Amino acid sequence: MHPVVSPSARLRHSLRAGMHALILSSLLAGATVSPLSAQTVDDDDGVASQQLNLPKDVTVFGKSDPNVRKATAIVNGRIITGTDVDQRLALIVAANGGKVAPEEKERLRVQVLRNLIDETLQIQEAAANDIRIDKAEIDQSYERVAANFRQSPAQFDEYLRKQGSSPASIRRQIEGELAWSRLLRRNIQPFVNVSEDEVKSVIDRMNAAKGSDEYRIGEIYLSATPENQQQIVANARNIIEQIKQGGSFAAYARQFSEASTAAVGGDLGWVRPAQLPDELAKAAGEMQVGQIAGPISVPGGVSVIYVMDKRKVLTADPRDALLSLKQLSVNFPAGTTKEQASARAASFAAQVKAIKGCGQANDLGAKIGADVVDNDNVKVRDLPPQLQDILLGLQVGEATPPFGSISDGVRVLVVCGRDDAASAAAPNPAQIMAQLEEERVNKRARIYLRDLRRDAVIDYN
């Protein structure tokens, strides 16, 4: 989930060997608004708190099987076909390396249909307000997505077809995100006001909180009612299980989260516990970087959270230090056993210990037949977590212990230079005001979409 510094392709590849490939769903975020706060608060108008006055003893007349779902729908006259669902579902399957159980696919299909209905409502409401996204603008966003895969649009078209999806499905998703974002900017954002006193209050709180923990959180929010709470919790647990098995958190957030931050993979940005609902703050405070937790009951539904990173408020983070590194690596011949690899790694480690500074690394590499890769301006936090603490404890000229695997070979990193992180500064008032405004826009956006669902005419085929 962490952004990756990409100075040298070879070093980046070797350090990230075995990690997940870039996921399509996390790349589309470039066409959307920036992430800010979790949308897990009660609606302002109080509708959620109204009682339905239901009888204590309920007699059901007729039969209804909640496990039987129709595959397609007509939303205010716009048809969502089974093919639309299949193609969007294929993106989720691809994000999980194609490893999704048949019964899980059926559950995902229901959720995908719900998301397509919301997407359709958003596009229809934008059109009703004379907001239409030009084909040229969609093409530009699509080209950026293809470029992230180092492919031309034509090559990306073919890639999507091989995955069982289609260019039309991605373009439709881009259109929905752009249209909804533009609609919010027109109909909601102009009526959201933040005072200078509120901004000053935030700055004062940040200064008072200097040195306390701050988290970068990802959230998947699923709305729930007392009637479907059990089913939604089960859905959340299934999502967690899929992510633990290698699925992309960002991909699942984009497809399933009902918060406005879904468009950016559920990324809430950097937040302090006091900025989160109590339930999420408590969970985040007990988690380590890279952990996922949930389902957590919050007002209006449940949340799944992922701790992407952690730092101290207004305090320089050692992991923001920039390193100059040399990597020495040797590969194992095919058929190498674990014992042989361990012996070779021990010999390699003993030879590397003789290095006294980076000036000798190239000579030693040539002597022992190791590949040597130079890399400057590598931020510590962008390296694999297992290496971060090791590198922070090394002085210039020292090397890490050998690491790797039989398939990837063994390697070490030598620290050639270090530029320590500068002291962190508080965001300026304009940045804070923009964040507060965005938080309020996101909250009202949920209410807006809820009203669209309430008034929609939906025919399930």
From TrEMBL:
Segment forming the signal sequence: 1-31
Q: Name one Pfam family in it.
A: Rotamase
User: Gene3D superfamilies recorded for this chain?
Assistant: 3.10.50.40, Porin chaperone SurA, peptide-binding domain
Q: Which GO terms describe its molecular function?
A: peptidyl-prolyl cis-trans isomerase activity
Q: Is Signal found in the keyword set?
A: yes
Domain named PpiC: residues: 212-309
Query: Mind listing the UniProt keywords for this protein, alphabetically?
Result: Chaperone, Isomerase, Periplasm, Rotamase, Signal
State the protein's name.
Parvulin-like PPIase
- List the source organism: Sphingobium quisquiliarum P25
